[in-house]
Write a structure and sequence with these properties.
A hairpin with a 3-residue loop joins β3 and β4. A two-stranded parallel ribbon has the order 1-2. The protein has a two-stranded antiparallel ribbon with strand order 3-4. The chain has a single domain, classed as Winged helix-like DNA-binding domain superfamily/Winged helix DNA-binding domain (Arc Repressor Mutant, subunit A). 41% of the residues lie in helices and 8% in strands. The structure holds a DNA duplex (13 and 13 nucleotides).
DNA sequence: CGAATGACAATGT
DNA sequence: TACATTGCCATTC
């Protein structure tokens, strides 16, 4: 049964491959999976635990997650991994964007 | 089945 | 840089 191609498992595996100190954008992951950018965000909003979701940011290099604890956690974790953040908690995609490899 | 929604992106102003 | 508009695909009402 083919059900749907929106196999979140593939997205989760990809996110788990993001090396420490680097980040990926939703569009980047979406492009690799061939999905619409909204699909990535949809699955990421319900991602399982143990997944480095904090390494995933939007094309602006900002955290797309809603205001709250997660927002602070993401910023703290990225800094702890050596990801350069600019003022406002924005990520320097120029220096930390995952090449995907 | 149609309209609305969502952790987005690209483009124009 | 910030805001507005349009396109994207699946889920929900």
């Amino acid at each position: 049964m083919k059900a749907t191609q929106t196999n979140p498992q593939r997205l989760y595996a990809l996110v788990a491959l993001i090396p420490s100190g680097q980040v990926a954008t939703y569009g980047q992951l979406a492009s690799i999976l061939g999905w619409g950018p909204r699909l990535v965000g949809r699955h990421m909003s319900h991602c399982p635990e143990g997944l480095p979701w904090h390494r995933v940011v939007n094309a602006s290099g900002d955290c797309s997650i809603p205001d709250g604890e997660g927002r602070l956690i993401q910023r703290q974790r990225l800094l702890a991994e050596g990801v350069p953040l600019t003022r406002g908690g924005r990520v320097n995609l120029r220096l930390a964007l995952w090449s995907g490899l």
